[in-house]
Amino acid sequence: ALEILSREKRTQKYFHRIKMISLTDEGFLRSASMILASEIGDKTFFIAAILAMNHSRLTVWSGSVFALALMTGLSAMMGAIAPNLLNKTTTHYVATGLFFLFGLRSVYDQTVGYDANAESELEEVEKELKEHTSSSSSRTRGRGGRGGKTGPATRTRTKAKKQSPGSKINDILAVFFSPIFLQAFLMTFLAEWGDRSQIATIALAADYDPIGVTLGGICGHGLCTSAAVLGGKRMAGAISERMVGLCGGILFLAFGVHALVVGE
Question: What is the full DSSP assignment across 43-88?
């Protein structure tokens, strides 16, 4: 009975902690501002904007935000574990170094290393979506065939394709989710993996409350994706990727300076 009571108290304490996280929490504010500064005009932003032009906005928004929320939760979890593997001082200065690294890299890319002829994020996303659409059409035509008889070799290849693990997983997921939801989810998740915002989220969660960092990141991603879905390609084309990158770099540098001045 005592063990049950202690578990209930721990559970109540945990949920009370979540309720106590407000809009003034430092981890929440830093995470939300970092996402807003770095994700507008980013690859995931353009994915949502272009997909929403031809498909259900709600479906695209749901798939994109679900992927970003999952990525934010995983990143915050990794950041929360870091202080248990390294001491607090080491974790703090590693996180501070990452902020300076990302900040300097962003400022350099948008000033000294800026290439006006380089392919923009918007053009890159458009190209990927065209390739995805053409490959999907090819698979559809391949399944439908041309109506003629197929030889043994063709039937064997078709059978092998039908039995491939990837196809089975896609078929299972397609039962529960729409193809557009899966496309938005997978493209967003893969684009965000290894991105600077993911690494920055890990660094923030190592220094601040992981729950506040997670909620702030999800709110920031939700706002950016909403703007992308509602604004569409017209808004995406009006955004200056160079200015957004420069502002994001300055914000990262500000985080780094603040971490050095305040300390652990």
Answer: HHHHHHHHHHHHS-HHHHHHHHHHHHHHHHHHHHHHHHHHHHHS-H
Q: For residue 145, count other CB atoms closer than 10 A to its CB.
A: 11
Alpha carbon dihedral 60, 66, 67, 73, in 10-degree steps, equals 160
> Token digits for 111?
């000033």
Residue 192, burial from CB neighbour count under 10 angstroms (0-12, 13-18, 19+): buried
Residue with tokens 């970003």: 68
Q: Is 221 within 8 Å of 34 (Cβ atoms)?
A: no
Q: How far apart are CA 89 and CA 77, in angstroms?
A: 19
Tokens describing residue 29? 């504010």
Query: How far is 110 from 244, CA to CA, in rounded Å?
Result: 9
Phi, psi of 263 (to 5 degrees): 85, -160
pLDDT tens for each residue of the chain, 264 residues long = 556 656 666 666 655 555 555 555 788 988 998 898 888 878 888 888 888 888 888 999 999 999 999 999 999 999 888 878 877 788 888 888 888 988 898 888 878 777 666 666 666 776 777 776 666 555 555 555 444 444 554 444 444 444 455 555 555 555 566 888 988 998 899 888 878 888 889 988 988 889 999 999 999 999 999 988 888 666 666 667 778 778 888 888 888 888 888 766
Whether the Cβ atoms of residue 49 and residue 228 lie closer than 8 Å to each other: yes
Structure tokens at 44: 């995931």
Dig out the tokens for 89 from the structure.
């001082």
- Other CB atoms within a 10 A radius of the CB of residue 13 amount to 9
